[in-house]
């Protein structure tokens, strides 16, 4: 009969920390990047005009989008201009720092944007911004 050598089972196996640290950093980078792209999740895809000297404004209560066909959207829902202006008026009365960002498609009729601005001004909404993409204005 062959006698087998008894193994020493009291020694604990070593844990490799390097792969675990790599995975933690990868998860951290993933969550940081995914939260950065969540800032404009509720927007309608349009081709905005390009401006070289535009500034980033994150303090907006209403994000209004005017598509090339003239339809008006509040965040990600289609809206009637009259109801939207009335809602903006009520919000302006509640919050004196109320702001509106208008994202107009570059192919939209200029008159649509001016009419919307005029109707907002008529109900005392004066903090209005026009959104653009940053780039070269060739």
Give a short overview.
This protein has a domain at 43-134: Nucleotidyltransferase, domain 5 (2-Layer Sandwich), CATH 3.30.420.
What does this structure look like?
This protein has 138 residues and is of the alpha/beta class. It has a domain at 43-134: Nucleotidyltransferase, domain 5. The protein has 3 helices and 7 strands; from the N terminus they run αββββαβαββ. It has helices at residues 17-36, 81-94, 110-122; strands at residues 50-51, 62-66, 72-74, 77-78, 100-104, 128-130, 133-134. The mean pLDDT is 80.
Structural class: alpha/beta
The best one-word shape is elongated
Largest sheet composition: 5 strands, mixed
**Which topology of the domain at 43-134 does CATH recognise?**
Nucleotidyltransferase, domain 5
What is the radius of gyration computed over CA atoms, rounded to a whole number of angstroms? 27 Å
Report the helical percentage. Answer: 25-40%
| Topology order in helix (H) and strand (E) letters | HEEEEHEHEE
* Number of DSSP helical runs: 3
**Poorly predicted parts:** none
- Name the quaternary structure: single chain
Lateral arrangement of strands in the main beta sheet: 4-3-2-5-6
CATH class of the domain at 43-134: Alpha Beta
If classified by CATH, what would the architecture of the domain at 43-134 be? 2-Layer Sandwich
End-to-end span in angstroms? 90 Å
Question: What number is the mean pLDDT?
Answer: 80
Q: Note the beta-strand portion.
A: 15-25%
DSSP strand count: 7
């Amino acid at each position: 009969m062959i006698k087998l050598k008894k193994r020493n089972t009291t020694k604990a196996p070593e844990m490799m920390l390097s792969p675990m640290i790599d995975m933690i950093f990868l998860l951290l980078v993933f969550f940081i990047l995914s939260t950065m792209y969540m800032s404009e999740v509720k927007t309608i895809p349009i081709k905005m005009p390009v401006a070289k000297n535009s500034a980033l404004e994150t303090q907006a209560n209403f994000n209004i989008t005017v598509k090339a066909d003239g339809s008006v959207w509040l965040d990600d829902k289609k809206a009637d201009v009259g109801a939207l202006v009335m809602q903006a008026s009520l919000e302006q009365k509640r919050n004196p720092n109320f702001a509106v960002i208008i994202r107009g498609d570059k192919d939209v009729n200029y008159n649509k944007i001016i009419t919307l601005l005029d109707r907002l001004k008529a109900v005392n909404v004066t903090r209005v911004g026009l959104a653009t993409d940053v780039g070269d204005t060739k």
